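Submission sheet (multi-component)
Chains listed below:
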Amino acid sequence: SAVISQKPSRDICQRGTSLTIQCQVDSQVTMMFWYRQQPGQSLTLIATANQGSEATYESGFVIDKFPISRPNLTFSTLTVSNMSPEDSSIYLCSVGGHFGIQYFGAGTRLSVL
Amino acid sequence: QKEVEQNSGPLSVPEGAIASLNCTYSDRGSQSFFWYRQYSGKSPELIMSIYSNGDKEDGRFTAQLNKASQYVSLLIRDSQPSDSATYLCAVNEAAGNKLTFGGGTRVLVKP
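Outcome: structure written.
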């Protein structure tokens, strides 16, 4: 499986600011995904990060709030924009492997005050 | 809306016993099924994948798949306190590469 580095690991942010989360993989991967895990909940897919084109967002998530970049096959960023306390969550990136398997980064624990 | 359902638990089992976890899914065309383990404060870790009907064993873990019944299960034999975690069932969408996760089952193994 790929080695996935995600940073920051945690952050405390003020309401109205933005935070960019980085996800770096040690090998080229076609598929990269961003998830949100709210406290005590399961994982919800935010979007699929596509290399060379716009991300594909899931219902309930929009590009203005969660802009995503995917400049190459080893790197992606997720920005959480104009944050509110409701954005306090764990944000996870994952990469797609063979046979549909996904491997996860360590996650970013975000608290918004 | 594709759904994956799990009993939230907690499932409490004594050390050395078998823990049995269940998962049902709605997308009849799904072909790939996964069990992830998530310790508190950590990210999900893949423990089992299964793609065809029947049983698949890996160490103390056995995954069972019944596509006709749209049902996946995970057995943990000889449960250890270190198995205490939340277990997430994930199903690959028939039409793409996305995973849909169940709500997770919290397992507590008591010494």
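Remark: Residues 97 and 103 of chain A are 7 Å apart (CA to CA).
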